[in-house]
Amino acid sequence: MIDPEKGFTSDVITDPNRFVGRIDLIRSCMQALHSPNSLIAIYGKRGVGKSSLLRQVQQMALGDYTLATNAGLHHEIPDKPRTYLTVFYTCDAIIESGEALVSRLCNDQNDEDGLLRLVPQDGKEIVEFTRTKEVSGGADLKVINWGAKGIESSKYARVVEGDTVQTFRNFVSSVVQHQVKGKMKRDGLLILLDEFDVLQNKNGLGSLIKSLSSKDIKFGVCGIGQDLTDLIEDHASVERLLEQGAIHVKTMPDQEAVNVLNKAEELFEGDLGIDDDVKNDIVKASQGYPYFIQMIGKSCVSKASQLGLTVIDRHVYNRVLEDIKSGVAFPTLESSYQRAIGNSEARQMLLHLLAEQPEEMTLFHEDVGRILLKNVRKDAAEFEVDYLDQNLPRLLDRKFGPVLRRIPEGQGIYEFINPVFRLYVNLRAI
Ligand SMILES: Nc1ncnc2c1ncn2[C@@H]1O[C@H](COP(=O)(O)OP(=O)(O)OP(=O)(O)O)[C@@H](O)[C@H]1O
Ligand SMILES: [Mg+2]
């Protein structure tokens, strides 16, 4: 039995040796890290690889440039790259304001990524560690013992009752003084905020971040969006900080997508091969979404193991396709599918019709993925007269997904909220 996780993963990629492609983005991240003032903002569609890139930013910030070297950017690495200690926090939809976010940061007890771990305190034991197996891996700090006082945040730095932002400033300045400059001799503290798009009220977040940034403290935010406004509403206030740091993650070009499969073969260390024509088919089905490649890859490995094979050939791939067609391969996507169609054949038909539409580029965004309803109407006319207008609303309804969202830039333009779900529908049998 070969472990699929050895070569494929649906998790965020932290290890630079598993990270494929994205050379231009790595270059931009490197530049933004090196510029003392720049804020970093990573945005793009769901499942396209944003968080993985953010984790690579963290690695480089710690001084580990394995990724840039592997990507052939060795000559572009600054002689003395700015180095950081890092905080990594994943936001959630319960956080209702900038102040709530700052409060979360002050209370996060994650022992490898939290801010609190870095705040000096009697009795707390902190050790250096690296997130990768590399010897060169950049060291960060983690807590191995929170000390007798426990992990009650008020016992740490000067907490100012009723003033979260000031408390945060106090925490951060004590971290910068003692850990960043003192113990680790770094240039600054880098605070990375993933899933920044889910924050309920984005009002004033840009200016808050701007006011907290300094030559010692840099922020990096990351989330779903087609442009910066989706991430930072008041982006005008941070525009100057973003000259180098606005990073749009797009779908992977085919060559990079093939390399995800080549990388997997390399990680399997000869235990498993993938036929070239199967690689091409997987790349075509995935349309540049590494998440789908990883998921199909994992299924193929399991299937090959079941069949006692060490090569993913046409036969193995076809068996996986059958599983996808019948809805047993990816339970999570399948349950979204079932929820969307309910028991309605008409809605199922419509869903497939929408998913099959060629993706349109629209005027204002370079991202593809738009569906024009008038084109769907033409196809729909061949089936049943009225069912489109009856069934579309459910696909837009929160209760049943939602599967689609209306794009405000023009009439009758829609988009699949989860592009990977669209890919799935295209492989799923009616
Ligand atoms: N550069 C890469 N090389 C190989 N695989 C990648 C790369 N980037 C992302 N992936 C894979 O794609 C999937 C999605 O990655 P990730 O979670 O980073 O995307 P995301 O854009 O943050 O997704 P979400 O919008 O759901 O937060 C994961 O399975 C990850 O392993
Ligand atoms: Mg993510």
Automatic annotation (TrEMBL):
Q: Quote the Gene3D superfamilies the UniProt record gives.
A: P-loop containing nucleotide triphosphate hydrolases (3.40.50.300)
Identify the SUPFAM superfamilies for this entry: P-loop containing nucleoside triphosphate hydrolases (SSF52540)
Which InterPro entries has this protein been placed in?
Answer: P-loop_NTPase (IPR027417)
The protein's name: Uncharacterized protein
Recorded source organism is Amphritea opalescens
